[in-house]
Amino acid sequence: MHSAERLDSGHLPPPPPPPPPSPGRNLPFIGKLKPFYLLSILVLLLAISFSISKTDQFKKLFFLRSNLLNPTVQKQISRNPIYTAPYCVLWMAPFLSGGGYSSEAWSYILALHNYSMNKNPIFNLKIEQHGDLENLEFWEGLPLDMRNLAVELYHRECKLNETVVVCHSEPGAWYPPLFDTLPCPPIGYGHFKAVVGRTMFETDRVNDEHVKRCNLLDFVWVPTDFHVKTFTESGVDPLKIVKIVQPVDLDFFDPVKYEALDLGSLGNSVMGSFSNGEKFVFLSIFKWEYRKGWDVLLRSYLKEFSGGDDVVLYLLTNPYHSDRDFGNKIVEYVEKSDLEEPKDGWARVYVIDEHIAQVDMPRLYKAANAFVLPSRGEGWGRPIVEAMAMTLPVIATNWSGPTEFMTEDNSYPLLVDRMSEVTEGPFKGHLWAEPSVNKLQMLMRHVMRNHEEAKARGTQARDDMMSKFSPEVVAGIVSDHIERIIDHAQ
Ligand SMILES: *[C@@H]1O[C@H](CO)[C@@H](O)[C@H](O)[C@H]1NC(C)=O
Ligand SMILES: *[C@@H]1O[C@H](CO)[C@@H](O)[C@H](O)[C@H]1NC(C)=O
Ligand SMILES: *[C@@H]1O[C@H](CO)[C@@H](O)[C@H](O)[C@H]1NC(C)=O
């Protein structure tokens, strides 16, 4: 069901909560205060919110603040002295982590900020770091204009009773958080105009704890029809669920603007012998976890290709509860498998395990001929969408998040063999997809051989991104929904 229908058909958000002690007071974490006062307010705030590991919390908060307040960035802030919109949207997300929620959150605030320049919505946007660790390397790799904008939005002032809070993170980070993070909403429920959760999940269901947390909020935004279904079936109140798709920055991920990165200078050779001829480049980008199907990818690729093929596979990966020794993990996987080395040697595999700054990502995609990710489950699949914006032909598993945007006209949806059980971790027993190894082999070969068709699908991919997931389109959807929340909650 669409949000508009829901709001128009009389299913209003829950009645306004009891008023807080002084509803008009400013949100306490706003950087105009001197550090001393900020510190004392934080002490108070954290003391009332929860009592675990206060010292670590401060260290983290101040790490964040010293980054955001880096003088070279701050010098460039252009403050807008005219403050018109009465309402605020406080968007709390792991802006500084560089992970999936982080890049998603960035794409929303960039889109909303631009939108507000032209459309004068009834709210101002404010941001706050929450929900994951801060990664200094990631922050420093962001374009300067993004860092400046973050500082500007971070300094906006909002009144509690006029603020819609968006908690954009995994539900375990929502108030009261299950781990060490600034809680969202910051001082618990009942003080704000409304609280919205933005989340997603990559298996066939949502666990009971997360369902309970979703149902505490006024609305739960999820990115795809897949999630509308899995969240509803798991017990989240369907009247609270709203599908809000994710934007992709088509101006930034625009292939005509970039020269390809020189792959020769990147990456470590893991399989196959060196050769410097023309090669067809498959690129995959993922965190090193079983869910991402790196085993499926290696198996398909090494079965299909050999040292005699003019092909190379580049894996850009980073650790996920693991060390960085990806080369050895791959070699070990191959040795333990039933894969046999072809007569003319293994096909070439390179691992890029160094940090690639966000500003260089378009150039990395540009250096590839195709993008491939046989994941077992995805919330959305950002690298897939970015590759599509860059007009690459994409092969990815046709299950979960990516079914929202992959079609047979704009990509190569990879068939699922069967569902399989998650065997480890907190989501043990959930189901996700086993992509077909054989079909992946065939699709990779097909994309290499059918250059024109692959190119046409890549072009279609960018067109589809333009019409459905451009920042303007998605900012319009978000803005409309927020305005409805504000109107109905008055
Ligand atoms: C919020 O509180 C302030 C101060 O108490 C009040 O002036 C303002 O009207 C309130 N705003 C809303 C939307 O209720
Ligand atoms: C925002 O607008 C600027 C200038 O119009 C443009 O260059 C930029 O790409 C836009 N960004 C997004 C995310 O819409
Ligand atoms: C991909 O999955 C969707 C949704 O489950 C289905 O409708 C579609 O036919 C599938 N496409 C392919 C190529 O398998």
TrEMBL record:
Compositionally biased residues, Pro residues:
12-23
Keywords carried by this UniProt record: Membrane, Transmembrane, Transmembrane helix
The record's Pfam families line, in alphabetical order, gives: Glyco_trans_1_4 (PF13692)
Stretches the record annotates as Disordered: 1-24
Q: Plastid: present as a keyword of the record?
A: no
Q: Where are the transmembrane segments?
A: 36-53
| Gene3D superfamilies in UniProt | Glycogen Phosphorylase B
**Name of the molecule in the record:** Glycosyl transferase family 1 domain-containing protein
- Organism, by scientific name, is Solanum verrucosum
